Every structure is written in C-alpha cells, then in structure tokens.
Amino acid sequence: MVRTTLMARNTDMRWRLPLVCLLWEVAMIVLFGIFVRFNPEADAAGWQKEKHHKNITSDVENDFYFRYPSFQDVHVMIFVGFGFLMTFLQRYGFGAVGFNFLLAAFGIQWAILMQGWFHTFEQGKILIGVESLINADFCVGSVCIAFGAVLGKVSPVQLLIMTLFQVTLFSVNEYILLDLLHIRDAGGSMTIHTFGAYFGLTVATILYRPNLEQTKAKQSSNYHSDLFAMIGTLFLWMYWPSFNSAVSSHGDAQHRAVINTYCSLAACVLTTVAFSSMLQKKGKLNMPFLESRLRIQDTCGVHNLHGMPGIIGGIVGAVTAAAATEGVYGKEGQVKASTFTLEKLTVLCYTGTQDAATCGILKLPFFGDPTDENCFEDNVYWEVPGDEEANLYCMHDSNEKSVTDQ
C-alpha cells in the first residue's frame, strides 16, 4: 500500500504535464510570431526579388528542391528511426516511441529559435527555410541520443526540461565550433553524436539509481521488442547517407558524403556480423563493467553507439585533414588538423561543465520520476491495453508477493 501510494504521488501527470506542454507551446507561438519570418527563398515576394537579383529563370533553382528530399530522410530518422530503435525494452515500447515523439516535437521548435538567433538573425528577425528545418532535426537528433541514456528512468516532464536545456546548450556549442572556430563537421560526429552521448551519460550519472539492479528483468528484451528495434535500426541505416550530406555544399561535397557513407555502411554490416559471430559470449563488450566502475546506467548504450564513434570520427577527421592537399580538395577544402583536436576538447569540456546545472534541476523531487522498482514500465505514464497489461506490462513486487504467499 505504501509503495502504491508513493508511485501515484510521484508519477501523477494530471496537471504537471499539461501545464508544461501548454505553457511552452504558448511561449513558442509568441516567440515565433515576434521573431520568425520566411527567408527570401520561402517568402513569396522575397523569392521574386531573389530571382531577379540573381538572374534565376526557373523555380526549380529554389533551395527547397535541393534540400527537401534530404530533409524528409532526416525527419524519418528522428521520429521513426530513433523512436523504434529504443523499443527493445519489453515493457517500454509506448514510452520509447511516444516520449521520443514528444521531445522531438518540442525540440524542433526551440531549435529553430535558438539556431536562428545564432545563425540567421537579420534586422531583428530569424529567417528560416528548409535548411533551418534540417538543422533543427540535427539538434533534436542529439537530444534523442541523450534520451537513450536515461530511457525508462525519467518522467515526461523531466524529458521536456532536459530537451529545453540540451537544445540551448547544443546551439551555443554549435555556434562556438562552426562559427567561431570554423570547424567542418558535416556528419555531426562531434556536434551531434559526441555531445548528445556525453550529455546523456552525464545526466544518467548524476541521476544514478543505486537500487536499479533490482529491475534487471525489466531491462531485458523479447522477440517482438527486438524486432521493432531492428526496424528502427534499418530506418537509420538506410537514411544515414542523407543525414551526413543534408547540409553539405551542393555539388561534389554532397556527392562525396553520400558515396562515402553508403560504402561505409555496407562495410560496417559485414564487419559487425563477422565480429559478433567470432566473439560470441565471452568475447563481447561488457557494459556492466562500466556501470559498476563509473556509475553509468546507460540504457541504450549511447557510449558505444554514439560517444566512442563520435570521438573516433573526430580523430579520423584530424588525420584526413592533415593529409589533405590543395590539389585534391582545393584551397577552401583544406582544414587544419589542429581544429579537429580543438573541437574534441571543446565538446567534452563544454558538455561536462554545462551538465551540472541541468542535472541539478532534473533532480528536484516534484517532476514525477518513477521509483526504482517502477522504472522501464509503460503503465506508469501510459494507459496500456488490458490484455497486454495482464500478460506483460503488469508491475510485480516480489516482496509483496512473498508476504501474500505466506
């Protein structure tokens, strides 16, 4: 009885979630009305002036026709790819897809504003076009990565607050790296993957739950949950060439990014299958080692999926930049290797210092996070269909059961 009352008191979202959602959406509407305007290529009168000024004869030259196919692919990755990737938890399918949907929908609005203030702010207005939508999705991709580290352990209100802070910090970090340090990071290995992974891991570390080991059974998967997660994996795999090339310069740069990513993805599949087969069981990486030694509770393994690959990408980028010649890439294509090293240090230091304030707020007791024994459960925040609740999603308390049996 005590535990049931505690759960209801802690996780009741009846007023908290609607208040946060509606308050922030009203704020978004007001801020969009004050600051946001279409850029010349999206504005009716502005496009006509742009055509006349640049001697453009066809509407096909509008940036929309170059960027929108890539935008569609990236958008699917954010809402379908990342959402279904995290459905591997057998009792947290609604939470994985639904909360990913919620944080992404809020995040893209706030990202358009934050990135607009830093990158496209002219004469007191934020000018947006299709590239603004792509960059907003990139920003939210970083939040989705961080969500993977705390999956099943936080409330929807905490997720919205985390999104607010992370989008803000992401935009500042992106401005420092791309505009002030002039670093090239087309695929977002550092700005998106590394920042998102270590932001999420820092949050997970500060929100560490010492009794979470008691819910190990709920952190497992079953046949159907793994199948849905595989669907998310395939969506991400298929559209990754678009993700890496979406905002690259038209022409050879975008072309190279697609080809390189396409070939790399195909090679990675064979390599992964080979090593998974060769190193089965005893040879596999053991994430509980990191959990026990570093106090990391990384639900989705974002350290392996995004953190380490992001750092490796930065190192490889530095080596590639050092080997680049003007004859191959042209003068504008050359980038100093030292900038990549500076980028890695900037991202890691910035993430660590800024997360402290964010996590301090998320630890406040009135945001409705679940108790340790009720983590990774959909029916804490969702109405689960009756049959599913009876067969799979029903919360069990081993202590109460043993008392009843006596």
TrEMBL record:
The keyword Oxidoreductase does not apply. The chain crosses the membrane at residues 20-38, 74-94, 101-121, 133-152, 159-178, 190-208, 220-239, 259-279. It is found in: Cell membrane. Pfam families: Ammonium_transp. SUPFAM superfamilies: Ammonium transporter. The keyword Signal does not apply. InterPro entries: Ammonium/urea_transptr, NH4_transpt_AmtB-like_dom, RhesusRHD. It is a multi-pass membrane protein. Its main location: membrane. Residues 62-287 form the Ammonium transporter AmtB-like domain. Keywords: Ammonia transport, Cell membrane, Glycoprotein, Membrane, Transmembrane, Transmembrane helix, Transport. Homotrimer. Belongs to the ammonium transporter (TC 2.A.49) family. Rh subfamily. PANTHER family: AMMONIUM TRANSPORTER, AMMONIUM TRANSPORTER RH TYPE C. This is Ammonium transporter AmtB-like domain-containing protein. It comes from Phrynosoma platyrhinos (Desert horned lizard).
